[in-house]
């Protein structure tokens, strides 16, 4: 009593052929791209603004006593530049600051800017200084009372 399951040729004919699949399954790719898109859409606004805030006034952070051994650049409310008590044009600033760096053996510039100056003017000055190779800039403020 034996049972026959058919010939071996019939079994092989039921198996799918093992050809290479030339189609790309894009479903997982689309899922990953959509998740990344949502993540970037949520985080992009935070990179620019973060949170809404007002810039604070400074309290005592570090006690600093300015002396003649430090290079101090002051910007007046009219936009004039002073190193010490001597007035300079912007074209002459970099050469004077670098010579003061060599004379005082320092690489830190202390920047004092009048509080009524627009933020953009101080930012442009700092950008100008950095492009000219002056990278260590410390902002000097007064202690809030």
Describe the structure.
- The protein is of the alpha/beta class and 145 residues long.
- The chain has a domain of 69 residues: Nucleotidyltransferase, domain 5 (2-Layer Sandwich), CATH 3.30.420.
- It has four helices and five strands.
- The chain has a five-stranded mixed beta sheet, covered by helices on one side.
- Strand 1 and strand 2 form a beta hairpin.
Could you outline the blueprint of secondary structure elements for this entry?
Blueprint: H1 8-14, H2 27-48, E1 71-75, E2 81-83, E3 86-88, H3 90-104, E4 108-113, H4 119-131, E5 136-139
Parallel strand pairs: 1-4, 4-5
Antiparallel strand pairs: 1-2, 2-3
Identify low-pLDDT runs: 48-56
Number of strands: 5
CATH topology of the domain at 71-139: Nucleotidyltransferase, domain 5
Q: What is the beta-strand fraction?
A: 5-15%
Structural class by sheet pairing and helices: alpha/beta
Features:
alpha/beta, 14% strand, five-stranded mixed beta sheet, Nucleotidyltransferase, domain 5, 145 residues
């Amino acid at each position: 009593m034996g049972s026959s399951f058919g010939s071996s040729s019939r079994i092989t004919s039921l198996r799918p052929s093992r050809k290479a699949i030339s189609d790309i399954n894009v479903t997982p790719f689309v899922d990953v791209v959509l998740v990344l898109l949502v993540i970037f859409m949520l985080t992009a606004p935070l990179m620019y603004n973060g949170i809404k805030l007002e810039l604070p006034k400074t309290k005592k952070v570090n006690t600093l006593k300015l002396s003649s051994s430090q290079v101090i650049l002051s910007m007046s409310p009219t936009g004039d530049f002073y190193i010490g008590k001597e007035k300079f044009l912007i074209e002459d600033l970099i050469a004077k600051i670098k010579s003061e760096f060599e004379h005082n053996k320092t690489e830190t510039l202390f920047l004092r800017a009048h509080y009524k100056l627009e933020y953009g003017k101080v930012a442009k000055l700092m950008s100008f200084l950095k492009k000219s190779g002056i990278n260590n800039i410390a902002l000097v403020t007064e202690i809030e009372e």
